[in-house]
Design goal:
With 538 residues, the protein is of the alpha+beta class. The protein is 24% helix and 38% strand. Strand 9 and strand 10 form a beta hairpin.
């Protein structure tokens, strides 16, 4: 059971209201309440889909003006209606008020000329919400005596344990309520769980060899929080070079430079030979029409051209091969002229750098972790189910989870989970694992959660939101809306809990409305109700 802490600001609302009630009232109000024989007004509460109204009015007498006090509340927010037109229809007559006297209150003056029972409706047109509410039938009496007699006959004693809580107080704390309703609910097994990274979603990048850590060309060393791609060069490691290695590399460099000079010479020489052969072929072809050259001479010239073209291609290939070798060899430090070997450190997965403990120039060994990269775009939620509860799990799971670090949020877990094939000998539990999308990054490794696994279903269960429950000395209770502005405390017997709803096995009837926001404040008001007298300041 979750405990609800009552904000001090809301407690002060109740205490302030108590003080207001004890304060001296205006003389007109005191005079009215001093008349013990004055009949109590009608009190009517009607709840629609978007609005709730509470009406107070005296017995209506033909030809006599009467005031109907209309209080209007927006159900979705618990706020009073602050603006808009209200139309009260009684039979064929319509009485309008363009704006409230104050927030939530519309005092409408009515006068009817016929005696009888008339259907009443209330139409509300407001930016906050609009709706037409059916008010039932209103009786208009022939004279004051008949009205007084009807009022005495219709007097209702307050229910035992009822708590008066004025709408002005309800509006201050945004009190909300809704009816108990029947829904299909799932029986659930609740087990502790935690968020884990998937296998292979966290990698440590080690130095490929011992040496000095340097940044890759065109970028700085990655820092924590930086996103990287698989295959990306994140850093370089420069190993130390001994004297023998440096000598060998210098010798190789000189040999490659000499071979490149020879290759360049061969390319130029082959180009000259090709040009000479092509010109000779062209000269012989020009002399042929005059009979000054023969076909064998021309064929021989063509073969010479083909041979020189091939020689040029071979020379170019050799030159390009040497250039590639020179490009691929270790770069040279321009200040010292010495060769430098640098081995890349590559990212093996897409992810975010979460640890980068070294700076450029640091000495690293082959077992040194240079970077840690994590891919948390998808995570595992793993719970532990006791082996004694395994028989309760269904073949088709319906599961959800709540997280301590994400209060008020519940996530449905689609798909079937992975269930470990082995029971832990230490804890006698079995791991149950779901994979979740975490593109927004709100789920973090190690985050604690509660995993709710469906174990059966209850059809058409009478249920209320868990927010309606008020623990009163350890006993689950709710506050039900009563007549007018009163609430009645009910002890309820609870059954299945499914997400944000709980089954009610006893103490509540279908469609009775329970307070879902502000229940603890109503409880506080009940403790001081002896000193709070019912009444409005209109």
């Amino acid at each position: 059971m979750k405990l609800t802490l009552v904000p001090l600001a809301l407690v002060s609302v109740v205490l302030a209201a108590a003080c207001d009630r004890l304060a001296p009232q205006p003389a007109t109000v005191l005079a009215a309440t001093s008349e013990a024989d004055e009949p109590a007004p009608h009190q009517l509460t009607v709840h629609g889909e978007r609005l709730s109204t509470y009406l107070e009015y005296p017995e209506l007498v033909r030809g006599t003006s009467a005031r109907v006090l209309v209080h209007l509340t927006v159900l979705a927010t618990g706020e009073p209606v602050r603006s808009g037109k209200v139309t009260l229809r009684i039979g064929e007559r319509a009485f309008e008020l363009a704006a409230p006297k104050r927030e939530g209150l519309y005092p409408i003056e009515v006068q009817l000329d016929a005696v009888g029972q008339f259907v009443a409706k209330l139409a509300v047109e407001s930016e906050q919400a609009g709706e037409e509410l059916a008010l039932g039938e209103v009786v208009v009496h022939a004279d004051d005596a008949a009205a007084t007699a009807a009022a005495r006959a219709n007097e209702v004693e307050p229910a035992d344990g009822s708590v008066d809580f004025l709408l002005e107080q309800q509006w201050q704390i945004r009190l909300q309520h809704e009816p108990a309703r029947r829904v299909d609910m799932a029986r659930r097994l609740v087990v502790p769980a935690s968020v884990r990274l998937r296998d292979g979603a966290s990698v440590e990048l080690h130095a490929p060899l011992a040496g000095r850590l340097v940044a890759a060309q065109g970028r700085a060393l990655p820092r924590a929080g930086e996103r990287v791609k698989a295959g990306e060069t994140l850093a370089l490691v420069e190993p130390p070079l001994g004297a023998d290695t440096l000598t060998a590399m210098h010798t190789l460099r000189l040999e490659l430079e000499m071979q490149l000079l020879e290759a360049n010479h061969e390319v130029e020489h082959s180009k000259l030979r090709r040009g000479f052969a092509q010109r000779e072929l062209a000269r012989l072809e020009e002399l042929r029409p005059d009979g000054l050259s023969t076909l064998p001479e021309i064929d021989a010239a063509r073969r010479e051209v083909e041979l020189t073209v091939h020689e040029e291609e071979v020379a170019l290939g050799r030159k390009q091969a040497i250039e590639r070798l020179m490009a691929e060899r270790a770069p040279y430090d321009p200040t010292t002229g010495s060769p430098v070997i640098r081995v890349p450190v590559l990212a093996t997965i897409d992810g975010v750098v979460v640890a980068a403990p070294h700076t450029a120039g640091a000495s690293v060994e082959t077992d040194t972790t240079i970077l840690r990269v994590v891919d948390a775009s998808r995570v595992w939620l793993e719970g532990r189910v006791s082996e004694f509860d395994l028989h309760r799990l269904q073949s088709e799971f319906g599961a959800s989870a709540t997280f301590l670090g994400l209060p008020g949020e519940r996530r449905a877990l689609p798909g079937a989970p992975w269930i470990a094939p082995r029971v832990s000998e230490e804890s006698r539990t079995v791991a149950v694992r779901f994979e979740l999308d975490n593109a927004d990054g709100r789920l973090r490794e190690g985050m604690l959660a509660e995993l709710e696994l469906a174990t059966g279903r209850v059809s058409s269960a009478l249920s209320i939101p868990q927010s309606a429950l008020v623990m009163d000395q350890g006993v689950p209770t709710v506050y039900v809306t009563g007549v007018g502005e009163s609430f009645v405390r009910r002890v309820v017997e609870l059954g299945v809990r499914d997400g944000e709803r709980v089954q009610v096995l006893g103490g509540l009837a279908e469609s009775e409305r329970v307070v879902t926001r502000g229940g603890y404040i109503v409880r506080l008001a009940s403790m001081g109700s002896a000193s709070m007298e019912h009444g409005h300041h209109h």
